[in-house]
Amino acid sequence: MPVFLTKESLTPVLPAWDTKGRLEDMEQYFIALKSEVQAAQSSKTSLDESLALYKSRLQEVTAENQELSARNRTLTADVERARNDLHTTTTDFTHARRDHERAIQDLETRHDRELASVSQKLEKEVELVSRERERDADRFRREMDEAKQQWRRQKDDETAGLTTAHWDELAQLKADHGTETAALQRQVDELRLAGESRATESAGEVQNLRDTIMNLENQLQSANVVAESLRTRIAADEARYAALEQEKAALVSKTHFLEGNQEAQSLEFTTMSQKLQDAIDAKDATLTTLRKEEMLRRKLNATILELRGNIRVFARTRPLLQGEEEPAKVDYPDVDALDGGKEMVVHAPTTLSATGKERNEKHNYAFDRVFGPCSANDQVFADCRDLIQSVVDGYNVSILSYGQTGSGKTYGMSGPDGIIPSSIALLLSEMQRLLEKGWEYAVEASFVEVYNETINDLLGDAKSWDEGEDLGASIRGKRKEKHEIHHDAITGRTTVTNLSSVMLWPPPENDGQWPPAAPTGSQPADLGTSYTEKAVQQLLDTAAKNRRVAATKSNERSSRSHSIFMLTLHGRCAATNASSEGVLNLVDLAGSERLKQSGAEGSRAKETAAINKSLSSLGDVIAALGNKKGDDSHVPYRNSKLTYLLQSSLGGTAANGKSSRTLMLLHLSPLQAHWQESRSSLLFGSKVQGTHIGAAKKR
């Protein structure tokens, strides 16, 4: 059926406007749109938080990257420096080994020549001794023969004389006895004949005759006894003669023994001479071995000290004194370590932040050695022994006692078992030990102070000059001697003009007049018996009386100057023709303090400014030594008299190639009130601790 296009068919028929439906649709659309907006806002918030987190993380990563880059550069520089040090050490060891081999070859050649010379001389002496022994033997044989013949003649004459005398005496006794017997017999016969003829005589006469006969018989018995005694005497003389014959035979046999034992004695003499020569050779070889071992010990000790560093820092906290309170809190985490504590943790006083919260800061410090309040002077010195012993080996060593006033610097340096008296005892002991190996030493001592950039002699009249504006004239009307510092570029020696010095070793033959008494004050109770003990004690007493001290708010006896105890050791070994020269500077620095804290005014303020300036110059010199790249690098020694005086002993290398070793001994106060000064000392010590200087060399 066809469809016709009409107006009605072309116009669509739509329902009327549905307002309610439209509103519902709009509400649903609004709710959906609102939920989407809320979801978008929450998503935006999370995205913002993630973005902030990523930004902070990016900043941390960037900072960490920068820190790692800086650390990488530092480690690279350290590795490069370590490589250079290793190369230098290897080269030095190679040169030392080559020199050692050459020295050994020279010594062996010299020893062979000396041995050949000694052998020839010994052979000549043995031949000469043998000839003398033969001549002595011939002369002794002739003398023995003559003595034997003379003795035989003498004994024969004595024996013959005794025998003749005995027989003559016996014959005389027999003759006398026969004569007396015959006379008695005649008398008896006569009496018998007379008795027969006089038979008529009275009985009294007969009795008299009988008595006479009895007497005669008694006399006969006595004569028989005398004859028996003569026979006994003859037997004794014969026994004596036999004993003399035996003695004669013994002397003859002894003479034969001596004549036969002469060759054995000569052989024994030769053997003893050879043993004596062997003992002398063994002694010389032992001394040579000891000298080589001493050289090896010195090299090993130098290597150990170089590995530890030519600039070392020790920190020591003194104990609380009577009446002191509120100590600072300090921890020693490795106090029980086998090699001693090296770390300390200092807690700062509690402070309030800007928001009112308490802040408890703590600072970590690490040094070569850390000593707590319970450490004694001898414990501190035990860790300084190797440095001080290297002075005997020919190195320059400086030990500087640094810290605020009242922290115990002077006590640690000059007190009982302090560094100065203990160093003297150690050096004397080492010199006695090396004397057995052929080394002889001479020790010279001086004591100076640096006061307001002026050098004074503490062993002279250091306190006899005016301290006012006119420093040229003294109260005694004489001018103060000027002390100037001179450094010898060739020998590396440092000298001060017009400076007193005392020879501590060897002692003079007559030390009754030395050391002289201290200028003022009473004499010490007991100066000891030895010269060196008296001299050292007198030096310390004189320096203590002359050194400038004054009362401040920080310390009632504050040192107002730097004192330097200078020991110079000259050593020589005649056997090896070797020599050495070492200098030990024991420096007691004046107390570092702030003008506000010390309350110094007038001349005290001037002293404090000079002290702080010299201490600052000391830090600049050590920093310049650590940053020194070559021989032309500038080190500001002349900024202070203290650093200029210690130029050859501050861990640097002098113009002659001789270098030195330095120990900085920090003294800390245990009080909380001195926290700022202690922190300044610790920061200064950390700065010195970070300084690296090359290997030390001796002259």
Automatic annotation (TrEMBL):
Keyword Secreted listed: no
One cellular-component annotation, GO: microtubule
Alphabetical list of SUPFAM superfamilies matching this protein: P-loop containing nucleoside triphosphate hydrolases
Annotated residues for binding of ATP: 403-410
GO aspect biological process, one term: microtubule-based movement
Domain Kinesin motor: 310-691
Pfam family, one: Microtub_bd
GO molecular function, one term: microtubule motor activity
Coiled-coil segments on the chain, per record: 51-85, 130-157, 199-254
Residue span of region Disordered: 507-527
Keywords: ATP-binding, Coiled coil, Microtubule, Motor protein, Nucleotide-binding
PANTHER family, per the entry: KINESIN-LIKE PROTEIN KLP-3, PROTEIN CLARET SEGREGATIONAL
Similarity comment text for this entry: Belongs to the TRAFAC class myosin-kinesin ATPase superfamily. Kinesin family. KIN-14 subfamily.
Protein name, UniProt field: Kinesin-like protein
